[in-house]
């Protein structure tokens, strides 16, 4: 299928995609809040400005967009246009994510990575969150 948008229309469309306060992120924050946890958002002093930081527990929750971070699911469809741009872009995102995860672990943070596609099943996600929060320190889960 050919992309029928003009460069201006495509730019406007892509400009509407935000990296903070996404629907999946808000859903997880609401769930954590209902569970009684308090947290900080997008701390700039930590590698990668993690989505949700629970300082008291030394835990971090990352909510990854399937397309942007190259998840292997149906939401992460491979772009059909401008492959020369998107292929390296997504690979660079994955490399950056790996560096950030390693740096966070080196700083003593436990990290839970949740994917956009997983968040649709709220019962499973809530169960994973409870397990992660009750697990001891140094337990990163992906």
Describe what this molecule looks like in 3D.
The protein has 142 residues and is an alpha+beta fold. It has one domain (22-134): VSR Endonuclease (Endonuclease, Chain A). The chain contains 4 helices and 4 strands, in the order ααβββαβα. A 4-stranded mixed β-sheet has the order 1-2-3-4, sandwiched between helices. Strand 2 (52-54) and strand 3 form a beta hairpin.
Shape estimate = globular
What separation lies between the terminal Cα atoms? 34 Å
Mean pLDDT: 87
The major beta sheet can be summarized as: 4 strands, mixed
The total of helices stands at: 4
Poorly predicted spans: none
CATH superfamily: VSR Endonuclease
Number of strands: 4
Structural class of the secondary structure composition? alpha+beta
Which CATH C-level class is it?
Alpha Beta
Fraction of helical residues? 40-55%
Give the second-level CATH assignment, the architecture.
3-Layer(aba) Sandwich
Domain tally: 1
Features:
142 residues, alpha+beta, Endonuclease, Chain A, 4-stranded mixed β-sheet, globular
How does the SSE layout of this entry go?
Elements: H1 7-15, H2 23-34, E1 40-41, E2 52-54, E3 59-64, H3 83-106, E4 110-115, H4 122-134
Parallel strand pairs: 3-4
Antiparallel strand pairs: 1-2, 2-3
In short:
Helices cover 41% and strands 12% of the residues.
């Amino acid at each position: 299928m050919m992309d029928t948008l003009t460069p201006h229309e495509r730019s406007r469309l892509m400009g509407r995609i935000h990296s903070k306060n996404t629907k999946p992120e808000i859903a997880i924050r609401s769930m954590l809040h209902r569970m009684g946890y308090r947290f900080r958002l997008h701390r700039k002093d930590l590698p990668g400005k993690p989505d949700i930081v629970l300082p008291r527990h030394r835990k971090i929750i990352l909510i990854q967009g399937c397309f942007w971070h190259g998840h292997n699911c149906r939401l992460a469809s491979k772009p059909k246009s401008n492959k020369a741009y998107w292929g390296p872009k997504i690979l660079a995102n994955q490399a950056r994510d790996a560096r950030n995860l390693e740096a966070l672990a080196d700083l003593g943070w436990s990290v839970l990575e949740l994917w956009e596609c997983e968040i649709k099943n709220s019962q499973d996600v809530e169960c994973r969150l409870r397990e992660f929060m009750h697990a001891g320190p140094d337990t990163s889960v992906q």
